[in-house]
Write a structure and sequence with these properties.
Elements: H1 2-108, H2 114-181, H3 187-317, H4 325-332, H5 340-347, H6 372-382, H7 387-391, H8 395-402, H9 411-424
């Protein structure tokens, strides 16, 4: 009985030890499973966090790239709009100036003097200088636009380089964190993480390649856009040059036509003036001949009268000596020839009409077309001493005072100038 109890006790102890060991193994297995489950969960959480971080970085990079492209496109559109608007304003201003200048030329073609010709030549020189300045400004504007494109491209490349550098730094930091975390995982987890890291590196490499391709496409698009803008500006500059050349040609043709018309007008005026001068010269010569004839007759009459007076004096001194009657009749008939009074109108100077004491004489030569001789005639013949008297006179009275000189005088213009001076005063 003692041996059986011992055996039973020993068996119970062995069973108890076996149960304890089994419980310990089960506990170890449960702890290992729990540890593996926790490691799996932590790996999944870390993988999810890493994937979320990469997705966020990718989305941010995409958003930044899209915003950058949008801003660049907007800036290009604004710049192109401003360029078109500025060129349109220059073209409109040139068109308005050209139309105004041609209208002025058409209005001035009828009565252009030598001074107006000189002013027109100066205006044409100034217009050519303005066109040259516009050409120089267009060239400078194209150069500034090209420089601005270069600066913008440099800034874009710098920004993309900064984004890529930031992405590289963040990726390197993330890889360093992953390498530090690899020390605490099992071999299986290391293998899984290594596979995940390889996949992550491939993704990063693909993203780098895509970023490089995007930068290349962006650079190509910028080059194409710059080429198109240069081509558009070159075409607009060519159009401006052609328009300017056509405008200068039309201006030269108009100037030649106007010069021909002016030459014809001057020739006609010169011919008419020569005819008027010749007619006046003939009239002056005829009047001079008439005056000479009148003077000769007057001298002959004065001579005959003087002889008659001397004869009468002689007759008074010699009363006994009669004078032959026929001779006396002949001498008496001499005064019947043009008398001395007939010569007076040719040599007589009309007395000057007095100026009222309350008025002061004006300088009438300030009126264009009135000289000192005409002023003397107006003073003596018409009694016109002041500008107000001239303004209140009628053209008929002034012409009557001028006599034969009135044909070459623009009396209406004199009166209009006098009225204008009174209004200004």
């Amino acid at each position: 009985m003692g041996l059986s109890d011992d055996m039973r006790q020993l068996s119970q102890n062995l069973l108890k030890d076996y149960d304890d060991r089994m419980n310990a193994v089960v506990g170890i297995r449960r702890g290992a499973a729990q540890t593996l489950a926790e490691l799996g969960k932590s790996r999944q959480v870390r993988s999810a966090e890493q994937q979320q971080f990469l997705n966020e970085q990718t989305d941010e990079l995409r958003r930044n790239t899209a915003d950058f492209l949008k801003e660049m496109d907007t800036s290009h559109q604004v710049m192109a709009t401003e360029q078109r608007q500025r060129l349109g304003q220059h073209a409109s201003q040139l068109h308005r100036e050209t139309a105004s200048f041609l209208n002025e030329l058409d209005a001035a073609q009828q009565d252009v003097t030598a001074e107006q010709k000189q002013q027109l030549a100066e205006y044409m020189d100034e217009l050519r200088r303005s066109i040259n300045e516009m050409r120089s400004a267009a060239v400078d504007f194209v150069q500034e636009l090209d420089d601005a494109h270069q600066v913008m491209a440099t800034e874009q490349r710098q920004q993309l380089s900064e984004h890529a550098s930031g992405l590289h730094h963040e990726t390197a930091s993330f890889l360093n964190e992953l390498d530090a975390a690899l020390q605490d995982v099992t071999a299986e987890q290391k293998q899984q993480l290594a596979e995940y890291m390889d996949e992550l590196r491939r993704s990063i490499s693909e993203m780098r390649s895509a970023a490089a391709d995007f930068v290349q496409e962006l650079d190509d698009a910028h080059q194409v856009m710059a080429t198109e803008q240069r081509q558009q500006l070159s075409e607009q500059a060519d159009d401006l040059r052609r328009y300017t050349a056509d405008f200068l040609k039309a201006l030269d043709d108009a100037h030649r036509a106007m010069s021909v018309q002016q030459s014809r007008w001057l020739a006609a005026s010169r011919s008419g003036l020569a005819s008027d001068v010749a007619a006046m010269r003939d009239e002056a010569r005829a009047e001079q001949s008439s005056l000479r004839a009148d003077l000769s007759d007057a001298r002959q009459a004065w001579g005959d009268l003087d002889k008659l007076i001397q004869q009468r004096k002689t007759m008074k001194m010699e009363p006994a000596r009669p004078a032959p009657a026929p001779q006396v009749e002949k001498k008496v008939s001499v005064p019947q020839s043009p008398p001395a009074a007939a010569v007076l109108p040719a040599a007589e100077v009309l007395p000057a009409k007095a100026l009222p004491a309350s008025e002061t004489p004006d300088d009438l030569t300030v009126i264009r077309g009135i000289g000192s001789r005409v002023q003397q005639i107006l003073n003596n013949e018409a009694g016109i001493y002041t500008i107000s008297q001239l303004a209140g006179s009628t053209p008929e009275d002034v012409r009557l005072a001028l006599g034969g000189t009135a044909r070459l005088a623009n009396v209406e213009d004199w009166i209009a100038q006098a009225q204008g001076l009174i209004e200004q005063a």
